[in-house]
Prior knowledge:
- There is one protein chain.
- The protein is of the alpha+beta class.
- The chain has 3 helices and 6 strands, in the order ββαααββββ.
- The chain is rod-shaped and about 105 Å long.
- The chain starts with a strand and ends with a strand.
Amino acid sequence: MALITCPECKKKISDTANSCPNCGYKLTPEKVHEIKKKEKATNPLALGCLFLIAIIFIFYQLDFFSTSDTSKPKIESPKTQEEIRTEQIEKHFSAWDGSHRGLTQLIKESMNDPDSYEHVEPVYWDHGDYLTVKITFRGKNAFGGVVTNQIVANVDLQGNVIEVLSRNN
Ligand SMILES: [Zn+2]
């Protein structure tokens, strides 16, 4: 015995009953067969729809639809793309003072007193393949005086220093 849904009152009833105990709807083996067929057909269809929606949603998240035409500039979600890029770039900068990790190491290696290093302010320009980063920092010079210095360098998107363009210390 299995349960089917009464087409009249939508209550679950036995497929062996001659009529619905709730509303009195007459059941014949043909009707029961038809109801069962419908119930079987409905559930996978509903699941299939959900699955399809999930797939579309995932592709949408992956930017699947907007990358099909690469010649067109993306106008669908420029903010999100920008945010992703900013996030990618800013992970090379220290979260607490904004100093560039690779550059800080380079600066400290060349300082008289690396412990006196004090990061002031980073500025960067995004060139696509690489960034130009300008770091302002303070540190003790050979005479023990604290001086403010600047270093400008190109760094790659992995955070490695490619080339030091200028430094004044
Ligand atoms: Zn009924």
